Structures are given as structure tokens and as C-alpha cells.
Amino acid sequence: MEIGGHNLDKSCFIIAELSANHGGSLENALATISAAKRAGADAIKLQTFTPDTITLDCDNEYFQINQGTLWDGRTLHNLYQEAFTPWEWHQALFDKAKEEGLVCFSSPFDFTAVDFLEQFNVPAYKIASFEIQDIPLIKYAASQGKPIIISTGIASLEDIELAVKTCHEAGNKDIALLKCTSAYPAPLELANLNTIPDLVKRFDVTSGLSDHTKGIVAPSIAVALGGKIIEKHFILDKSIGGPDVEFSLDPAEFAEMVKAVRDTEKAMGTATYILDEKVEKNRTFGRSLFVVKDIKKGEKFTADNIRSIRPGYGMHPKHYEMVLTKVANTNLERGTPLAEKYLA
């Protein structure tokens, strides 16, 4: 899978999620993009909606938040009024990302957002967790012919199957499914990261993690399990506050996460039994057969005068029992690496 020129098979695609972390300031948003680049992100992701395209300005019981979240006591419209990124900022944000060498794309939340984003030639579309059941939106986004990244935070297996089927029916098989736990912040015990390789196996897709846990443990594990995308909320400074600050990383924390992810990639490597040159040299510190007592010519080799010890300059220890049936053809001093030429 490739997004914006980034080959996900070669290295994990690390996304800094801007979300509401601009604090209502374009200046903050632009500075956040620059900081994400310095912290090692490959991409910056926006959210493209308005309060009125995502919900209703209504305060009856259905629109009140009271599910034990960070945002309880507010209405949906009120929350999204604080969280949304003004559409008139998008050109400046895309320009800034290009200037910084970052891939920039967004999560559209309705058809008008997809239409709006098309002018920026976005390299992918991200379907947010709570939109995985919006089949018309998925169909419309997938029909644009761009890679589709779908978070599975609130999804049942049936929801995921339907979303993937919808993309396929729209002629789009360039799909990534992100394991996501839609709790804010999400406890590690609910991360269930073993789902990542299962998504790959079940759906033949790219997989990864959209992470709402605190810290950087989950992203590293996700990469070790085969995750090719890591998405994490990013904030310029936690003093900005806002609805997403509790599960966002600041630049220092994000840079630490990037290092952990890249180190994990290095450590995973490939399945191989070919020894690196440095390791090959260190084989000399392995075991081999040595003379451990002086041996006279014609004397039999025994367990008392030869042993398998370090270093590895003598015969392979697999020859030990064979050597015990032989005699020395010359005098051998203690500390001599045993060689076939000394056997008779």
C-alpha cells in the first residue's frame, strides 16, 4: 500500500492527528504541522466537518453526552463547535504540510466534505471510528479511487465486513483497517492489539493502530504485530487544552514514540538464518574442542584431556565422541585447539 508516495511495506506510516488540538487558532494549527515534522511524523491528518454537517444543534436527551466520557454534560453540537477545523483554513494547512514535506489528508464526515477535499488532491481518505456505519459515506469516499483508511473503534465484525464489502463494490480494494479502542483515553487492557494481524488475515488488508491510549507502549507493540500505520493525536503544547488533550502527545512525547516505532522496525527485521558479518566474527567465542591436559604422541584422547570449551578455534563439538576413539599422532600442549590433523 502506498499513500502520498510513502510505501507502507517499507516503513510504518506515522500519522499525527491534528483533530481539535489547534485550540481555535490557525497560528497554532500551522505551528503544530511544523512541530509534527520535527517530531518525525510522516503525515498530518485533519478532520473536515462543521457542527451542522456532523450533528444537529439540539439539546434534547438524544444529543446530550452522558456516557462517562471526558465530554459529559455537553451537547454534541457544542463539542463539535469547539473541535472543528474551519474549512477556510484547509488551503493554508495543506500548503504548510507540503512546505514541510508531510503527507496531508483528512477524515471527511459527509459528502460535502469529500467534495471539498477533492480540490486538494488528497492522497487518501480516513473514515473515523464513529462513521464506520455510515455506508453511504464510505461508498462515496471509496468511489474517489484513493486509499481508504478505516478505524474500527465502535465496529462489530459485521460492521467491518460491510465496510470492506462497500469499498470493494465501489471498485476500491486499497483498504487499511486500523484497530482502535473508542475510549478517551483508552485503557491498555482494552487495546486488544492481537486484532491487528487478525484483520490482515480476515480481510486481506493493510492494518495498523489508531491509538487513544496514554503513552507509547501500544504503538510499538502494534508495529511488532505487523501494523503498518500508527495514528496518534498530536498537540503543540498541552497548555492549549481542548477536548482531545488527555490522549494527545506533545512534540517530545511524539518524538519518543517515533523513535520507539522505528527501533521496533529495526529489531523486527526479517526471518533469516544468515549471520551478519559482526555476528559471524563472534562465533569465535563459541564452543570447540581443546586440549585441556598435555597429551603425548600415541596417547588416547579422553574426557580428561579434551573438552568442549570456549573459544571456537578447535574442532566442532559434534566430533567429540569420534575423537574419543582416536589417539594423538603428535605431542599436544594444554590449550591447543584440537584439529583433525592431530588424530590417528
Report on the architecture of this protein.
This protein is of the alpha/beta class and 344 residues long. The chain folds into two domains: 2-49 and 84-268, TIM Barrel, CATH 3.20.20; 277-342, Antifreeze-like/N-acetylneuraminic acid synthase C-terminal domain (Type Iii Antifreeze Protein Isoform Hplc 12), CATH 3.90.1210.10. 32% of the residues lie in helices and 15% in strands. It has helices spanning 26-39, 51-54, 76-83, 90-100, 111-118, 135-142, 157-169, 195-203, 217-224, 251-268, 277-282, 320-323, and strands at 2-3, 6-7, 13-17, 43-48, 103-108, 125-127, 148-151, 175-180, 206-211, 229-233, 288-291, 306-309. The strands form three sheets. The protein has an eight-stranded parallel sheet with strand order 5-4-3-10-9-8-7-6. Strands 1-2 form a two-stranded antiparallel ribbon. Strand 8, helix 8 and strand 9 form a beta-alpha-beta unit. Helix 1 (26-39) packs parallel to helix 4 (90-100). The longest helix has 18 residues, at 251-268. The termini are far apart.
Radius of gyration: 30 Å
Order of helices and strands: EEEHEHHHEHEHEHEHEHEHHEEH
Question: What number is the mean pLDDT?
Answer: 96
Please identify the top-level CATH class of the largest domain: Alpha Beta
Within the CATH hierarchy, at the fold level, what is the topology of the largest domain?
TIM Barrel
CATH architecture of the largest domain: Alpha-Beta Barrel
Unreliable runs: none
- Report the span from N to C terminus: 63 Å
Strand content: 15-25%
How many domains comprise the coordinates? 2
Secondary structural class? alpha/beta
